[in-house]
Write a structure and sequence with these properties.
Blueprint (H helix, E strand, L loop, with lengths): L2 E6 L7 H14 L3 E5 L2 H7 L2 E4 L26 H13 L4 E6 L1 H12 L4 E5 L15 H22 L1 E7 L6 H9 L4 E3 L7 H13 L5 E6 L6 H11 L5 E6 L11 H19 L5 E6 L2 E6 L12 H9 L3
Parallel strand pairs: 1-2, 1-4, 4-5, 5-10, 6-8, 6-9, 7-8
Antiparallel strand pairs: 2-3, 10-11
Bound molecules: adenosine-5'-diphosphate and 6-O-phosphono-beta-D-fructofuranose.
Adenosine-5'-diphosphate binds next to helix 4.
Length: about 325
């Protein structure tokens, strides 16, 4: 293999730059040229390419976001869109592709792989909804951002005897809510995989009040039916709890942070492995972290599979709420 390309796709995740750097330097170190594709699959379809040398990826490991930029691209889901992408890859003499992104991006990688192109994926999304990686690039940083917010909100909640509802991202996955809620000592955690009706949340808050709690933090996942707005509205309409409620929706604040040491190391390990395997002719793989090791799983065994929340986290979220 003489030349490979790398792109970042879907929602950006802290650590993507470290992954671009590691894929580039691994390839360059093996005498393989690297092309960066700007704006994910949208740039692939438009041939928006830039050469990447080892120097071009210097000084980026510490930054969130992605120097290659990212996008969502409906056209890549069509055979015509992918044919345009394949033509650009062919014209640029690119023989292999590394896709750094989440489950949607890796679904795209699988389609391209099934159409005969050599692609490896690197598991990267703050949502942690991608099977094949116990934890994905960006999760650790995003959880820490949410946690810092929760800690601050708890402080002011305790000064005013208030209830803070904190809504975190995660799309349809409750991992961020569960991890940040557990680490932040939330009184109640609501996730799509652990739905609680607003009425049930009120019951739990009453119980907490009876146990002597004078303030409370409820962490809800954006993808839960009982999301932040729904719960806040219920509490206001029903005057349902003794605590004075406030709502904070963290939103994209969770996305742009400087990557933690964990995410930089994870990204470096996974992307280096993805490039090594691609260059040695092993493709159609998702590289993720499994049992502490950078592990390749065929994309076909990953896409469309469920990723349950860790049972231990779920059990702890119950037992810690005393
Ligand atoms: P993430 O990778 O963070 O989960 P998305 O779900 O938005 O982000 O997916 C990113 C992009 O991946 C989509 O905009 C689209 O271009 C591509 N993609 C998603 N699913 C498919 C699919 N089934 N076939 C081809 N491309 C896909
Ligand atoms: O997939 C990452 C993510 O941040 C989700 O948690 C969230 O639902 C979504 O992207 C937001 O997408 P956008 O940046 O397009 O608003």
């Amino acid at each position: 293999m003489r030349r490979i390309a790398v792109l970042t796709s879907g929602g950006d995740a802290p650590g993507m730059n470290a992954a671009v750097r590691a894929a580039t330097r691994t390839a360059v170190g093996r005498g393989v040229e690297v092309i960066g594709v700007r704006r994910g699959y949208a740039g692939l379809i438009e041939g928006d390419f830039v050469g990447l040398t080892a120097r071009d990826v210097a000084g980026i490991i510490e930054f969130g976001g992605t120097i290659l930029e990212s996008d969502r691209c409906l056209e890549f889901k069509t055979p015509e869109g992918r044919a345009r992408a394949a033509a650009h890859l062919d014209r640029a003499a690119v023989q292999g592709l590394i896709v750094i992104g989440g489950d949607g991006s890796q679904a795209g990688a699988l389609v391209l792989s099934n159409e005969g192109f050599a692609v490896n994926g690197v598991a990267s999304t703050i949502d942690n909804d991608l099977p094949g990686s116990d934890v994905t690039i960006g999760v650790d940083t995003a959880v820490n951002v949410a946690l810092e917010a929760i800690d601050r909100l708890r402080t002011t909640a305790s000064s005013h005897r208030r209830l803070f509802i904190v809504e975190v991202m995660g799309r349809n996955c409750g991992y961020l809510a569960l991890a940040a809620g557990l680490a932040g000592g939330a009184e109640v955690i609501v996730a799509p995989e652990r739905e609680l009706s607003p009425a049930r949340v009120v019951e739990l808050l009453h119980e907490a009040r009876q146990r002597g709690k004078r303030h409370a933090v409820v962490v809800v996942a954006e993808g839960a039916r009982t999301n932040g707005r729904t719960l806040y509205q219920h509490l206001c309409d029903e005057h349902a709890v003794d605590f004075d409620p406030r709502l904070t929706i963290l939103g994209h604040i969770q996305r742009g942070a400087r990557p933690s040491a964990f995410d930089r190391l994870l990204a470096t390990r996974l992307a280096a492995r993805a490039a090594e395997l691609l260059i040695s002719g092993e493709a159609g793989l998702l590289i993720g972290l499994r049992n502490g090791a950078a592990t390749a799983t065929p994309l076909v065994r990953v896409i469309g599979q469920p990723k349950p929340l860790p049972a231990e986290f779920l059990a702890l979220s119950e037992s810690m709420q005393l």
